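Exercise 7b. Backbone tokens:
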């Protein structure tokens, strides 16, 4: 009986984590079901239209084409397109590995966006991407941590000013500050670039432009939309668009991370995280507090007490 109660007591702290994982799996299943219902019929319709177009083309030009020649040509073109190489369009898209495109590709590696519009063809390029990403990702994370440490205190000043002048509680002021920053980032880095993209690139709707901006800043980067790939685009606009997208990725991701960090510091979010924390009498946070108190106590000791005298050598 005691062993059963001991087992139940040992498993009880893990019950909230089990509920959290179950809820996450249910959310995944729900998202998959909704996407299957929404995207399944259009995909089948597009496949049927493609087959009809292919059958019409083969019936019209059957005498001029050897059997399966068109399928082989399409397979070669699609394989090249998967690596970002295409013979379609004008001369502005001919150099897939020009400097702006290469910079955008390296930025997509270090920001884990990965649009998928380009991919290395050579074995040396693939090996370099592995080494470059393995070394560059930690450096990027260190840079983001340093900028976060520098910018978060600056972003907290407006919230403190509002809390003092409006007589708000700290929790309410923090929520108001995080909400304001979230709306500001959404307006500057999602809505405004989407309007610019919608106006400059006429082959996408406003919803598609918003979808691209959000997928970029959330590092999803599905790659189905990419600015500068429209046909008939002037080479100067193409290069400017690539550099603008590079700066947008770096600044937008930093703003998004700062916003997420500010929301994570909210008392309401911290209380929710604390609910799923282990109920052990001495968890990691308590241990960290004890270590911090020990370090503080050692730092306040006089040098003679902090560093005991060594025994004289014989």
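Sequence design result:
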């Amino acid at each position: 009986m005691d062993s059963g109660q001991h087992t139940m007591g040992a498993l009880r702290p893990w019950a909230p984590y089990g509920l959290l994982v179950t809820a996450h799996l249910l959310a995944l299943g729900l998202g998959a079901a909704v996407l299957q219902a929404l995207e399944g019929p259009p995909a089948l319709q597009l496949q049927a239209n493609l087959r009809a177009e292919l059958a019409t083309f083969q019936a019209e030009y059957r005498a001029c084409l050897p059997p399966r020649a068109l399928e082989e040509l399409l397979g070669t073109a699609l394989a090249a397109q998967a690596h970002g190489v295409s013979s379609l369009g004008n001369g502005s898209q001919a150099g897939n590995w020009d400097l702006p495109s290469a910079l955008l590709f390296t930025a997509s590696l270090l920001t884990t966006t990965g649009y998928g519009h380009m991919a290395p063809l050579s074995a040396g390029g693939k090996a370099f991407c592995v080494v470059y990403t393995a070394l560059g990702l930690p450096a990027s994370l260190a840079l983001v941590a340093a900028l976060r440490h520098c910018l978060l205190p600056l972003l907290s000043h407006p919230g403190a000013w509002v809390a003092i002048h409006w007589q708000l509680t700290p929790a309410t002021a923090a929520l108001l500050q995080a909400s304001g920053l979230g709306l500001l980032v959404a307006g500057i880095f999602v809505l405004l670039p989407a309007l610019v993209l919608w106006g400059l690139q006429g082959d996408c709707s406003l919803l598609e432009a918003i979808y691209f901006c959000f997928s970029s800043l959330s590092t999803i980067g599905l790659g189905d939309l990419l600015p500068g790939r429209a046909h008939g685009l002037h080479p100067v606009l193409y290069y400017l668009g690539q550099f603008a997208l590079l700066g947008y990725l770096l600044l937008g991701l930093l703003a998004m991370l700062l916003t997420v960090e500010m929301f994570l510091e909210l008392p309401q979010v911290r209380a929710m995280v604390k609910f799923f924390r282990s109920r052990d009498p001495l968890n990691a946070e308590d241990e960290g507090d004890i270590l911090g108190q020990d370090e503080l106590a050692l730092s306040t000791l006089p040098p003679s007490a902090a560093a005991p005298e060594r025994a004289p050598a014989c």
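Instructor comment: Residues 90-94, 284-314 have pLDDT under 50 and may be disordered. The first helix runs from residue 2 to 11.
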